[in-house]
Amino acid sequence: MRGAIGGPRLLLKRLREVMAEPVSAQERLDKTVVLIAANMVAEVCSVYVLRTDGTLELYATEGLNPNAVHLTTMRKGEGLVGLVAKEAEPVTTSDAQHHPLFAYKPETGEEIYNAFLGVPILRAGETLGVLVVQNKAQRAYSEEEIEALATVAMVLAEMIASGELQALARPGADLASRRALQLTGAPLSEGVGLGHVVLHEPRVVVKTLIADDVGRETDRLDNAIVGLRDAIDAMLDRGDLARATETLDVLEAYRMFAQDRGWITKMREVIATGVTAEAAVQRVQSDTRARMQRVADPILRERLYDLDDLANRLLRQLTGDGHHVPSESMPKDAVLVARSMGPAALLDYSRDNLRGLILEEGGPTSHVAIVARALGIPTVGEVEGITSLVEQGDAIIVDGSVGEVQVRPAPDVEHAYAEKVRFRAKRQEQYLALRHKPSRTRDGRDIKLYINAGLLVDLPHIKESGADGIGLFRTELQFMIASQFPRTGEQYALYKAVLEAAGDRPVTFRTLDIGGDKVLPYMHQIEEENPALGWRAIRLGLDRPGLMRSQLRALLQAAAGRELRVMFPMISASEEFDQARQVVEREITFLRRHGKPLPDLVKLGAMVEVPSLLFQLDEILQRTDFLSVGSNDLFQFLYAVDRGNARVAGRFDTLSPSVMRALKMIADKSNAAGVPVTLCGELASKPLEALALIGLGFRQLSMTPSAIGPVKAMLLEIDAAEIMELVDHHLKPEADRPLRLALREFAAERGIPL
Ligand code: PEP
Ligand code: MG
């Protein structure tokens, strides 16, 4: 480094000694700036720390007026120092006085300095402050000097992140590294949880930053890169896993990055400034993160994410940290934070300790979201950058009902949420009190309320909610969270457990509904232009009867000696139902021939979720023992609106005349034919929508377990006949108001809880 005394390595060595000294935080900072100034032959070295209010405060200086420390502040973007913080990139000039952004602060005595070099103090891509050196001479700083100062800034970043400097902050001027954040994402699982951050895959903490032996550290980096490449190649070669093409794409991208000369060269250059291989990876990773935050192009961002992930893997190679295993010593109020997570990984944690889950990725239909809902863990997904914005143990609040996350909340915010939790708990208690009350309207109509389920963890909900049974058992969930096809024996065990838990309450099993958005990671995926309209559900079942037969065999045996109710998903024509029934009959004949015990009664039903079936209701009603309306898919196909696409999913009202008339036709025809009909889509889970459904003539609703209480509380307060009249009236073309509005006003007037 030109002009430096002893070079950057000596400086880092000295800094290490200062960091270890038992002195106060201010003294440590003061010594640090003196060391840097001397080493870089600069007249000035100053440290500015970013505060929660977005201003930079001078925390230490060598060369400027010492009285300005903790007094001089500037906004992000103001002056050259503010520019460094705003851009999160080094800024250098040999003539600061004439720079258009030069901001004059008289108290610092700054005007006599000409050359300026400022680097951001970055940690995990976040700017925590700015480190500056200045010279009187109009000199230019070399690339090596900029590089060296950036490396020194890492040491300061660790010092700031450790919380040591917080003690120096005046009241109301907290450090930005600890600032409260309010983030939003997608609500994935209802409820509010207060607790402390547990990073699912904790960032690797690099303890030793400074190293003397450049050759040794470069060798360590090279070896780790070889190990990383081998690991990626091994993953790619595991052809037996029949991985989804997306996974392959990602791994291919990883392989490309792992061979990226630019990335590797950058890390080698950082090592040459006198740091460990780990510190070099971390530096380059931090720069990548900072860039990520500025890139708008989603594809490029995705690639940068990959690079970030890769850097983490490289760090693990270097430190020997294995994959994270949930520890026994988790806090009692853990809020898990992860970039993404598989359902099995979530099940590895003890439910008792989990207050919430926050993911950077993960949409409402992701498998981890399904499991989180089944476990009743408040969850928010699609929270950008959350894994790098929090530290292990930070206080955090997750509101899964609206999709909000509060990081390091202020006491009044925490208080408000704690109040919300208490309020919810009280409401839960009120719902619990309704558990044994018959679900009957004021005018004496019985409305059967069932739960939707799919996993063993759902079973306690039957009794807890006081439901009449399980209206939809999604058998594919067992397949979705497994790592390979569950054997017939495993399926049998689950179905038997379900029936036992239900006791004498009915359970309606749905045969495998895979394909579309329900992907099995281990099943070979065929490329389809439109998977939602493709080879899925009963279509796949009929074309590959082996899978369906193994499932039916498990179901028939599990229900030996009692009633078995089975329904088929995505039936689009009556012949499909006939074919499905034949598969069941063949299986019954097979089991009978082998002397196996059979159910006393087998009832078969069809799901109504493909619009074509609306025009074959007469035919289907002659053939089935019951119908079940899948309003999620029916709505998706009626309006041609992808149920998983947030941009369009909320575009049309689910209580619009088109949907309501379709549903009314199903209810009327089923009731007239004396064939029981249930509605098991999301519609039934919301009290206002459930009110509309009762008004249309539905007497059986199946919903997410937590909805049983609120829906029951609503129906106990209504006259079904009155609601039917109201709905009827508002479905006429001459109706003056949308049905949703009319029902809401009606409920408000009558004090019906929604
Ligand atoms: C539906 O489509 O409404 C339904 C209940 O099935 P799923 O949500 O599992 O597709
Ligand atoms: Mg469906």
User: Which value, in Å, is the CA radius of gyration?
Assistant: 32 Å
Bin the strand percentage: 15-25%
Instruction: Name the helicity range.
Output: 40-55%
Total number of beta strands: 22
Bound molecules: phosphoenolpyruvate, magnesium ion
The secondary structure category is alpha/beta
Task: Please give the count of helices.
Answer: 27
* Biggest beta sheet attributes: 8 strands, mixed
Order of strands, widest sheet: 7-14-13-9-10-11-12-8
What would you say this structure looks like, in words?
With 754 residues, the chain is an alpha/beta fold. The protein has 27 helices and 22 strands. The longest helix has 24 residues, at 214-237. Bound molecules: phosphoenolpyruvate and magnesium ion (MG). Residues 472, 474, 513, 609, 630-633, 680-681 line the site of phosphoenolpyruvate. Residues 569, 609, 630, 632-633 line the site of magnesium ion.
Explain briefly what this protein structure is.
With 754 residues, the protein is of the alpha/beta class.
Protein traits:
binds phosphoenolpyruvate; single chain; 44% helix; eight-stranded parallel sheet; 27 helices; binds magnesium ion; alpha/beta; 754 residues; eight-stranded mixed sheet
